[in-house]
Design brief:
The structure is a single chain. The chain is an alpha+beta fold. About 20% of the residues lie in helices and about 35% in strands. The chain contains 14 helices and 37 strands. The strands form 7 sheets. Strands 6, 7, 8, 9, 12, 13, 15, 16, 20 and 21 form a 10-stranded antiparallel sheet that branches. An 8-stranded antiparallel sheet has the order 1-2-3-4-11-18-17-14, with no helix packed on it. A 6-stranded parallel sheet has the order 28-25-24-23-22-29. Strand 6 and strand 7 form a beta hairpin. The chain is globular, with a radius of gyration of 26 Å. Bound molecules: 1-deoxynojirimycin and calcium ion (CA). The site of 1-deoxynojirimycin has 9 residues, from loops.
Amino acid sequence: MILRSLILLISLHLLGATALAAPLATIASPDGAIVVEIEINGEGRPAYSVIRRGQTIIAPSRLGFLLVDAPKIERNLSLTAQSQRSFDETWEQPWGEERLIRNRYNELRFTLTETKELARSLDVVFRVYDDGIGFRYEFPDQPRMREVKILNELTEFNFASEGEALWTPAMRSNREEYLYYRTPIEQVGVSQTPLTVRLQSGLHLSIHEATLIDYSGMNLMRIEGRGLNALLTPGIGDAAVVRKGPFVTPWRTIQISETAGGLVESRLILNLNEPNRLGDVSWFEPGKYVGIWWQMHLDTATWASGPRHGATTETTLRYIDFAARNGFSGVLVEGWNIGWDADWFGNGQDFSFTKPYPDFDLERVTSYARERGVRIIGHHETSANAAHYETQMDEAFDLYKRLGVRTVKTGYVSDAAGARVRTEDGQVRFAWHEGQEMARHHLRVIEAAARRQIAINPHEPIKDTGLRRTYPNWVSREGARGMEYSAWGNPSNPPEHEVNLVFTRLLAGPMDFTPGIFGMETRSPEGVATTWAKQLALYVTIYSPIQMAADLLENYEANPRPFQFIRDVPTDWEETRVLNGELGDYVTIVRRDRDSRDWYLGSITDENPRRLEASLSFLEPGVRYRAQIYRDGPGADYRGTARSDILIEERMVSGADTLVLDLAPGGGQAIRFSPVTGKRR
Ligand code: NOJ
Ligand code: CA
């Protein structure tokens, strides 16, 4: 008896003091593994914790708001109501990395009401999935807070145990385009999301947000120890966000997985978004494109008019012919319109979105393309002057619609906080790329384009928070260092970069990275720091429904064998699986074509060579497949001439086989599996 109470006492002690007080509210994931607990301390400060299989992974973390011209909402709160519900549905993506997605969660809603003075209240909603959690604040319309001016959120994410974080800095001049740091959680600075962590236990977590609508983007700043606090992107006035009730904030998300690959397979962010509002979007067809683009980044042609002007009618016709011959659906043309001659960076005032340069016959190229089953991909570089762009946007989309242009790449090149927006009183103000005003602008563009059945692919965009579910014409975007950095970056993208993207930026959604470079010498001192096989593998490891074959046509014409993979690889998938992967090191992804029974594999590594095993058990049982393998040659290396050392071979395989993937330093491997009739012997 004494022994038993002693054991009880010791175990209570080990559980720690907080566990003694029962939480005020709790909710578990459908499989029971993840539990969220809500507590309110003696000062009336609410906090949430996340527990997985009995282990606390997010220690009590505060909820609340700092306001402008009003007391903060953080203390003297009591839980005045709570309710729960469950949800389970399977929905279909019109295009995507996976066709069918199960959305299954348990939801807890509770009301926090101030016990003193203002007696303001708000709801907090938690959705707990088997692969993580999402939570948001919901502000009712209330007499004491008609207009809410948010200075910052007091939302915290306190990691309960040690781990390594993969993150990229936020609020610096190059917007979202920085290299990644891999540091202990304690050394995170001011970070963008997704920020991904591997705990010492091996568990993986990634913090991001979903449904960024009429609100400012969330960054993370470390407060102390392993604690991170939301840091809202500043607005144009003294508040980060100004809203009238009722309104909801974006969801704050924590994806949770035993493996790094599980984060990539998680659809939590899409699930937290509202269903498709555009109806039938079959007018958007996923596909691949070439373009008048890389030559400008190599500086062998110019966006501006003059003797080296890239976007001439003649060159465009050549690109259209090439696209038609090789099964590409699009040709991007940059520098076609008036406005590139003066200093356009961060300015944008000179751009016309309807007037072509005299050496570019817009009517002719668009009709020539259509006759050949190809479409021009439009381009609107705004230099982040959203105010100016909005004065021409409707006319510009009308023009493109009339000419049969169905996808437009937009651009917001300027330093961070150098965007320009027009406020309600007609003034033009400077803004951050991820503040509330730009969140609104991007949605206006998406809606204006959708009315003309046009898809949008912004560069220097606002971050992806899964809005492609609601607006499936928001098909891709940049929002990280893309291939262009390998043309002129100093440094260029290092070999680990694309692996890092898979476990951070790409968790947010599709990226227009623009892979497929064979000409490795560039203006950048390191050139393109991958092997050719890795360039091919990127078409599988980086998901986007539109993928560019970014190189100069002559490099494809001179190398038809490796180019064959770029011709073959689809951009729309039935399903996606991650076979292996570690943050910052390597990853192997397989995807099944949505329109055939073919599977594709992409495997990429950082600067280290790897031998990885890939079980082919994803293939249909009992069926033989021809595997067309594009792999690093024996001397392949991301440095020097060894980058083009590629072996292309065929093998017959089945789901019972395991392939050994030998990746060179900075290398990769790409495989197409096509079923052949007849069963395996
Ligand atoms: C930056 C974009 O990322 C790039 O793709 C484009 O060529 C330039 N801006 C010019 O618009
Ligand atoms: Ca860019």
